[in-house]
Amino acid sequence: MQTTPVLTVRDLRKSFTLHTIDGRKVTSLHGVDLDVAAGEHVALAGPSGAGKSSFLRCVHRSYLPDSGSVVLHTDDGPVELTDLPDREMARLRGRELGYVSQFLSAPPRTAPLEVVASAARRRGMSRTEARDAAAESLKRLALDEALWDVDCSVLSGGERQRVNIAAGTVHPPRLLLLDEPVSALDPVNRERALDLIASLSASGVAVLAVFHDLDAMHRLATRVVRFADGDIAEIGPPTDVLGAHAA
Questions:
Q1: d(Cα 100, Cα 168) in Å, to the nearest integer?
Q2: What is the band of 216 on the pLDDT scale with cuts at 50, 70, 90?
Q3: 3-class secondary structure for 154-199?
Q4: In what helix (H) or strand (E) does residue 241 lie, and over which residues does it extend?
């Protein structure tokens, strides 16, 4: 049975101009095509510099691609992200598109509970619902309740990463982008986070993730996309792709 994709990427190309005397260019993506369906977890594998993070950031549009198409399929129809005005892109990120990086970016003097509740409100929850959902997310990730109302800047790296995961997954969006989301977590909290991410598939969330953690990819991914030199070298189940290649 064919499944309508949540994300459709076609012929995506991205290059960077280096700050050198001759201003040379480095090509990061060479015309990449990929679809991601609802409830699917697609993991991007490959060595550093292969194009994984550039691809993820072009989908999020923190990088603007040189050319190509990135379409998010919403209830209101397909939306081409590459030429969407910045204000519309910001609104869409709030409602439909989540991004969890290795590092928490929170406004100054903002507490974890407010960071997560704000994400829930942007996704359509009322203030009361959002606060309850935020509390539940932080509890699930075992962030000490004594830290919920302190400035995020005083948290440890692992605590900030858990706040980031909670904000990305609370009242989850249609498409969730993950960029090494558990890199700073100890083994116990890593398990909690991976269990939470794994549960998203049942809610129909499409996940596109960069991991260097082979175990995480084996556990979470329905497909692994192996990048090499800015292009897709291989796509398949984790047991097929990861059996022959290290991430």
A1: 6
A2: very high
A3: HCCHHHHHHHHHHHHHCCCCCEEEEECCCCCCCHHHHHHHHHHHHH
A4: helix 238-244
Separation between Cα atoms, residue 228 and residue 165, nearest integer Å: 28
Considering only the C-alpha atoms of the chain, give the largest distance between any 2 of them, rounded to a whole number of Å. Answer: 56
Model confidence pLDDT, tens digit, residues 89-137: 999 998 999 999 888 877 788 999 999 999 999 999 999 999 999 999 9
pLDDT band, residue 247 (cuts 50/70/90) = very low
For residue 128, the one-letter residue type is T
Q: What is the 3-state secondary structure (H, E, C) of 8-75?
A: EEEEEEEEEECCCCCCCEEEEEEEEEEEEECCCEEEEECCCCCCHHHHHHHHHCCCCCCEEEEEEEEC
The two tokens of residue 175 are 């498409």
- For 125, the token pair is 């929850």
> How many whole angstroms separate alpha carbon 209 and alpha carbon 153?
26
What is the SS3 assignment for 139? helix
Provide the CA 115 distance to its chain's centre, in angstroms.
17
- Residue pair 12/58 in contact (Cβ under 8 Å)? The answer is yes
